[in-house]
Amino acid sequence: NLFLSKMSVAVLASSGGGAATLGHTDPTELLTAIHNELRRIQFSSPNNNSSSSSSSQDDDDCSKPQQQQRVCPGIRYALFVLLHGGKGLDGVDPNSATATLYTVGCDNETTKIATTNDDTTTTTTTTRSSLLHVEAIFEGALTKVNEICKRFDSEIIAPSISRGETKGLISISSDPLGVNRASFEAAASHNIPVTGSGGTSLSAAAVALGVSLVGNAGGSVATTTRTRALSYSYALSSAWCNASYNPLIMAERKDNDDGGGGGGVEQSSSSSSSSGPHIRSVLEACLPSFIAVCLACRLLESIYQDTVKNNDSIHLTIDDESDYYNSVGHLMWQLRYQALPTVCCVVAATSYAPGHGSTVIMSAVVASSVCSGSVLGGLAAGWVVSCLVDRALFACIRFGVPATMTNILVAGCVGSTVALVFAMAQIIPALIMFTNTIRWVVRMSAMNMASHLSSGWSSATIPYQWDGTGIGFFIGCVFCYGSKIGWYHSIFLPLILIEMERGEPSVLGAVDECTLVLVSAGICAANILSGQQNRGEQA
């Protein structure tokens, strides 16, 4: 436990200069993500059978015998200066700009920091918690926020580095030559690893103060919360002795201080796919988009009947390209063939890889470009994207790719690769043929079905030729029975959505309305009209 207590991390952060990142306006989300990823770092702790003389040496010595795995305590201290309005710090007036100071763990030793603002004194005291607690302690002019942050930095974080309590420093667009100078000087004198993002601040810390930068520390343009959290964690684990880090596996959960402090760890986005929603649930979650597209197409058809030739395909005869892209026909084509596959792809990707946020959304949109006309293709592409983004991200970090380039590769190249593979493998045409067959079977009229069933039989063999009477009654009975035994969400609703794949109404949806919706509406209407006051009698 003494060994683990020394492997905690301090974070010095701000909104950044140009604020060309995602997540810079939510300190709680960013710090929690970093904390959770740091908690996935595992150590082979020193052997407890070592002699008392050897135990007095530095506990993180690589030469010591190893035994069981322990997890990193995560963030011990954090200072985060957030400029209001989502602005960057480049070129702001510190006297007129307002900001908020967020902290983690800075009052663990019941330290009291008194701040004065307009002759009003505010004292903030926080007790230590095993869970990460991000607290906004002061809001005011940027100059005053910087003064308070500088006091925290010199009175709490820098001494913890000097005492050996903090073994890693993460800098996110901090101020190593001003507000955070004390901590960086302590990090340089004790040679603890420093990583982070924000090229200007990190280069100043390395050149002027001689800190030891590790990992792919560099610029922050186009980075996200997930990208930075993984990058920082891998960099520190690579610099520490006997440490290993893999974001693709679920971390050991320890919510007490004996496990090294820090809070519980969320499951990684890649491992969540094993316990994620069923693919049917993802498809059914897109129902609002299916209804909206169907209504929009129907509305456009009724208004512009001369433009839309038929329900099966849109024939455009516009020669001028600018007129084409402004035509109703092109809008109809986009709604019928591109909108729903894109929605399904994005929803699937974000459902199975929720931790990646905008990165997986961008990748899914690119991958959906090959899925025109197939919602099943969109679901498949989104699932593949969710499986690849974590692996691609970690591979880039392991090979030392800068954070900005990492996000470009993950957000762009993963989606492009999935689209290329799907196109070359002819997956989408096969899925379109499959859904077309389903629609043909479902929409076959009763007369056609009767003729197909009775084909090959002579009138002498079957004296009465069935004309399809009663098939509606039979399908209605199947719907009513199936809704009672779980067929609705597993069979009926997916078939309804496949029918609506091209923005067209669904035959099975009409059956659903007649057999289930209207019946339920009738029961509710009867209860209302009966005027019963007792809820027990109504039930």
**Main sheet specs:** 7 strands, mixed
Silhouette: elongated
What structural class is derived from the secondary structure elements? Answer: alpha/beta
Number of beta strands: 12
Q: Which strand order do you get reading across the main beta sheet?
A: 8-5-4-1-9-10-11
Mean pLDDT across every amino acid position: 77
Number of contiguous helices: 20
- Please give the oligomerization state of what you see: single chain
Low-confidence segments, ≥5 residues, pLDDT <50?
A: 48-61, 109-130, 251-274, 307-321
| Approximate helicity band | 40-55%
**First-residue to last-residue Cα separation:** 59 Å
From the alpha-carbon coordinates, what is the Rg to the nearest angstrom? Answer: 31 Å
Share in β-strands: 5-15%
Describe the structure in your own words.
With 539 residues, the chain is of the alpha/beta class. Helices cover 50% and strands 12% of the residues. The strands form 3 sheets. A 7-stranded mixed beta sheet has the order 8-5-4-1-9-10-11, sandwiched between helices. A 3-stranded antiparallel beta sheet has the order 3-2-12. Strands 6-7 form a two-stranded antiparallel ribbon. It is elongated, with a radius of gyration of 31 Å. The chain starts with a helix and ends with a helix.
Based on the model shown, name its key terms.
20 helices; elongated; 539 residues; single chain
Task: Map the helices and strands.
Blueprint: H1 2-5, E1 8-14, H2 27-38, E2 42-46, H3 52-55, E3 66-71, E4 75-83, E5 98-104, E6 113-117, E7 120-124, E8 135-141, H4 142-162, E9 166-172, H5 181-190, E10 193-197, H6 199-209, E11 212-213, H7 225-239, E12 243-244, H8 279-285, H9 287-303, H10 321-325, H11 328-352, H12 358-367, H13 375-398, H14 403-424, H15 427-442, H16 446-454, H17 471-484, H18 487-499, H19 507-530, H20 535-538
Parallel strand pairs: 1-4, 1-9, 9-10, 10-11
Antiparallel strand pairs: 2-3, 2-12, 4-5, 5-8, 6-7
